Amino acid sequence: MGAHGRESYTVLVLGPVVGAGDLAGLCALVDEAARGTPDGDLLVVLCDVSALTRTDLATLDVLGRLRLHAVRAGGTLRLWRAGPRLRLLLELTGLRAVLPSHPDGSADELGGLVAQQHGRQPEQREQPLGVEEVVDPGDPPG
Q1: Residue 31, class by beta-carbon neighbours within 10 Å (0-12 exposed, 13-18 middle, 19+ buried)?
Q2: Does residue 125 carry a pLDDT above 80?
C-alpha cells in the first residue's frame, strides 16, 4: 500500500481474446475507476484473465499498456486468476515483475521456474576439442 491509506479495487474481466482494438475501451474503464477512487486510496485494477483463451505477445502488449495507463492514472494493475500459459509467457519474457499476480485467489505464483526443472545439471565448461592455435610468422609478437 505504501503512502496510500487503503486500496480501492476495480475488476476488469478480460477474454477470451484481447487485442489492440480493446485497449481504448479498457483504458476508459480504468479512467472511470480512477475518478471514483476516494482521495488517499490507491486504485488497484485487478485484471481477471481466467477467461483468456489466446495468450500471446499481443496479449502481453495490451496488458503492459493497460498497466502503464493505470500507473499514469495514479493506480496499479495486478493480474488475477492467471492460467499456467500466461504465467509461463510472463516468466519467459521477463514481464512477471512488471505484470504481477494478485497475492490471493488463484493467482498462482510459479515459485521459481528454473528451480522446478528436476534432474538437470548445470553444464560444465569443456575445452573445445581439435582446436589448435596456429601462429602466422608474419604476425607481430605480443
Answers
A1: middle
A2: no
How far apart (Å, rounded) are the C-alpha atoms in residues 84 and 90? 10
| pLDDT tens sequence across 46-88 | 999 999 999 999 999 999 999 999 999 999 999 999 999 999 9
User: What distances in angstroms separate CA 46 from CA 82, 106, 114, one per listed residue?
Assistant: 11, 13, 27
User: Model pTM?
Assistant: 0.70
- As a whole number of angstroms, the distance between CA 76 and CA 66 comes to 10
